[in-house]
Write a structure and sequence with these properties.
Layout lengths: L1 H14 L8 H26 L1 H7 L9 H11 L6 E9 L2 E6 L7 H15 L18 H12 L1 E5 L6 E5 L8 E5 L5
Antiparallel strand pairs: 1-2, 1-3, 3-4, 4-5
């Protein structure tokens, strides 16, 4: 998650104009590269949470690199793998309650779309491909970064074949990812 944090800060610098290559086209390509690598990191985190089961079902997992395929393979092993976005509410000193975020975050379908769209931006255009040289992202880069942030700011993942869940804070007060294990016996 710390790498996701780093890439989201780079994206913020790009869309706020604090970071630039001096070429708007190159800036867009660089932003798409950051988005795609962020998505890959989320996909690999999902794989890591189910690594043993995933490796048993798919021994060639070390060569997997396409995020969509990784998501599909992990889902076949562990259907509840995708991060569940949460909204924290402090209910007392040192006590928190988490509601499920219902909108404005990066959905699994958004993930697949954005990964593929960014792929179109970071690879050279095939001169034999018909049609205009346009990559349609459907949303501004700042909005995609915000949706990723809302998915991961606080999220729950369920580990494969375990009752425990992890609640992950993308960025604590020190700017680092923070993980809390929640067991059924302690709520």
């Amino acid at each position: 998650m710390d790498q996701v944090n780093r890439r989201l800060r780079i994206l913020e610098g790009l869309y706020r104009g604090h970071v630039t290559t001096g070429d708007a086209s190159a800036d867009s390509e660089f932003a798409c590269l950051q988005l795609r690598k962020t998505l890959e990191q989320v996909a690999f985190a999902a794989l890591a949470a189910s690594r043993a089961a995933y490796a048993q079902k798919r021994p060639q997992f070390a060569g997997d690199w396409r995020a969509k395929a990784i998501l599909e393979h992990v889902e076949a092993v562990h259907p509840d793998f995708y991060p569940l976005p949460l909204v924290p509410q402090q209910v007392g000193p040192g006590r928190w309650h988490f509601e499920v975020r219902t909108e404005g975050f990066l959905t699994r379908d958004d993930f697949v779309f954005l990964y593929d769209a960014c792929s179109g931006a970071i690879h050279d255009w095939n001169p034999f491909k018909p049609g205009p040289r346009v990559v349609e992202l459907r949303r501004p880069i700042a909005e995609w970064a915000d949706r990723i942030e809302k998915l991961l700011a606080f999220h729950r993942i369920r580990l494969f074949d375990q009752d425990d869940v992890l609640v992950i804070e993308l960025r604590d007060t020190a700017g680092k990812a923070h993980v809390l294990t929640v067991s059924p016996q302690n709520g």
